[in-house]
Each structure stands twice: as structure tokens, then as C-alpha cells.
Design goal:
The structure is a homodimer of 190-residue chains. Chain A is mainly α and 190 residues long. Helix content of chain A is 66%, strand content 0%. Chain A binds a DNA duplex (26 and 26 nucleotides) through helix 3.
DNA sequence: ATTATCTATAGATCTATAGATAATGC
DNA sequence: ATTATCTATAGATCTATAGATAATGC
């Protein structure tokens, strides 16, 4: 049911997807949706939480790590790009839906805020500059959402490397520092 | 009518906005919409084209410019962040709507493809590296869409500078080169 | 004459609930 | 006994068209 909804929300759109369409794709009757979810909003919330929670768990672990900050930031960006690029559908597009601005999705926004804070912490630790570049860095990572939309068949591994390297350049690392961070194994990374 | 639709599409959502809601906001009757537009899709297309055309015009002009590539890239990123941040509503969110993937919006996608190509040209010219970093650069620029969504009251001028600087770091410019590119006036820039 | 707007409406949805029936777990 | 599913439907939309009326341009 969640899988069916995810596929429809990401291709047809959230509001364009009727509860009947979800039910048909999931092989149940329309009314059965309401036994499991309060409504379409609840389905969307569950999908959103499912995408941000793994990122936040990893970010929490990496922030507490002992490796050089640049290496941890590289690992986080690399993993998040992987999460956003993986899966049969581009769930990231759901972040941007105007409908998601509503109060019903406060829990999702709270988690995403925490993820943003983790990026800021790592970016500051890895940067020589005083500016907070966490926003820029998260922006570059999440730009794979639009990128995947434009080019559905991305070379995921290549994009992961390119974005993670770009993140380090963005916070001010020199090419030498970037190369060092990539080769350094981060125990908790992916 | 377009303004009313823009505001509703960006806040309520595209499919959630009925032709009646647009008409009410514009102060006309629901049926009158159909005298000016074939339907809601046509309104959305017009809005999308209106956001990408100014960017593309400037990009075309800058690609043909004679200033150092880094300065031209900085100016383009700066201006595009301004365009995406300006205006009463965050029109950029419309780019990501699943509904926009359809064939009806081919003209928009064609223009956006050309803009992407311009970014690639400038990024290659400004970079010492062989990789095409145009995608990363455009991604960083467009990340202001999500950023504006999370923080509606951005300091536009500060974000413009921060993103444009970030773009140059992304293509491999040193801090000295970045500083040089910012101070150099680009005749066609904004 | 042309363009813009209006009223009224056909026809097609869509959400969410009520109430019945089947399946499952203790 | 509880959980999951079903059928049927009320009530509320929503889009797009037909046809009438007003405003505008030559």
C-alpha cells in the first residue's frame, strides 16, 4: 500500500492520486485504505518520515564520530545522495510539494530541521571559514532530487562521489584535503 | 489571473487548486478561465516559461561575453538566485511537481535543458578540472528553491553572494580567484 | 464584428463513512 | 474477540461546454 502510494505520488502527483488509484495498485478496495490510514495525508507523512529517518540516524552517528570532520561530512553526503538516488521512485520530490507545508507534516519538518543542524555542525567543523555553510551543503546534496528527475538513469556511484567531493570543495577544502577525506574509511559510513 | 494562479499553485498545490479558486482570486467567474487558457495545464506552462526565459536570456548573453569565465559564472549564479528568490511566491517549487513531467510541458523542459547546457559551458570554462560540473553548479543554484521553502524570509542579497561564491568553489576556484571574480564587474550581469 | 464575460449544467470524479462479512489470534 | 476487508452510498466537489449577454474596436 505504501509502495503503491509512493509510486503514484511521485509520478502522477499527490493530489492527482485518488485513494481509489492507490487501492487499485495495491490490490484492495478503496475503502480498505481507511482501515490503515486516517487518509492520504497520513500515507504521505509515513513516506516522508521513512526517507528522512535513516539520514538522520546516520548523521547523528557521524556527528559523534572521532574521524576528521571532512571525512565524516564526505561520508554523510555520500550516503544521503545514495538514499535519495536509491529506491524505485524519486521520493525526494515529495519534500517540495506545496501540500507538505501544512501543519500535519510538522513531525517531518522537525526531523529535517535536525538533519540540517547536523550538516551545519559537520560543515563548520570541516571548514576553515566562519560562515555557516550547512545550508549550502545540504542544498547541494538534495539537488540530486531535481537531478534525478531530469535524468532518471543516473550513475548513482559517480554522482555520490561527485557530490560528496563538491561538498568538501564547498566548505573550503583544497583538492589535497578532498582526496585525503575520500580515502579515509569512516567506520559508520556506507 | 496568472498571479492568482501562481500564488495558489505554490501554496495550496497545483491539483488542489481548482479553476474556481483561481477565478475567485482573480475576481472573475470560473468559466471565464477557459476563454484565456485551454485549461489549468496551460496556465502552469505559462508560469514555468516565465521563470526560465529570463534566466536563459541572461545565460545566453553571458556565454557570449568576453570577461573571465569565473566572473561570468558568478554573475549568472548571482542573478539566477535573485530570480528564484524574488517575486511574491516561490515559483521554483513548480519545477519539481510530478505533474510537470508530462509531455504538455516539453517546451519548458527544452528551455531548461538549454539553461543547463549554458551552465555546463561556463563551468567548464571556469574550471581547471576535466569533469563537467555544470549539473552540480545548477543544482546548487536551484537549491535556493528548497531553502526558500524552509526559510521564507531569506536575506536574498546574502544568499546570492553565498551561493555564487559557493559555485566558484565548486568548480575549483581558490579563495583568491573567488574574490577576484566577485569584484570584477560583469557588464551584462545584474 | 470580435472579444470577454456571465449563468447554468452535464458528467465525472473523489473522500469518508456505515454496516456487513470474512479472516485471524488467543 | 479483534482485525481486515468488502459493498454501497451520501455529499461534495471539479472540469469543461453550451448558449446568452455585455463590452470593445474598427
Amino acid at each position: 500500500m505504501l509502495d503503491a502510494a509512493a509510486a503514484l505520488f511521485c509520478t502522477v502527483g499527490f493530489t492527482s492520486t485518488s485513494t481509489r488509484a492507490i487501492a487499485d495498485a495495491a490490490g484492495v478496495r478503496q475503502a480498505s485504505i481507511y482501515h490503515h490510514f486516517a487518509g492520504k495525508d497520513a500515507i504521505l507523512l509515513e513516506l516522508l518520515l521513512g526517507t528522512v529517518r535513516p539520514s538522520l540516524d546516520l548523521a547523528d552517528a557521524l556527528v559523534a564520530g572521532a574521524e576528521p570532520a571532512a571525512a565524516r561530512l564526505w561520508a554523510l553526503a555520500h550516503a544521503d545522495v545514495g538514499l535519495l538516488s536509491a529506491g524505485p521512485v524519486n521520493l525526494g520530490v515529495l519534500y517540495v510539494l506545496p501540500e507538505v507545508a501544512g501543519e500535519q507534516f510538522a513531525e517531518f519538518h522537525a526531523l529535517r530541521s535536525r538533519l540540517r543542524a547536523r550538516y551545519s555542525e559537520l560543515a563548520s567543523a570541516a571548514s576553515d571559514d566562519a560562515d555557516d555553510r550547512g545550508e549550502l551543503v545540504l542544498g547541494l546534496v538534495e539537488s540530486v532530487i531535481l537531478r534525478r528527475r531530469d535524468t532518471p538513469d543516473l550513475d548513482v556511484a559517480a554522482v555520490q562521489d561527485a557530490v560528496a567531493d563538491g561538498v568538501l570543495r564547498l566548505v573550503g577544502c583544497t583538492p589535497t584535503e578532498v582526496a585525503a577525506a575520500r580515502t579515509l574509511p569512516v567506520s559508520l559510513g556506507v
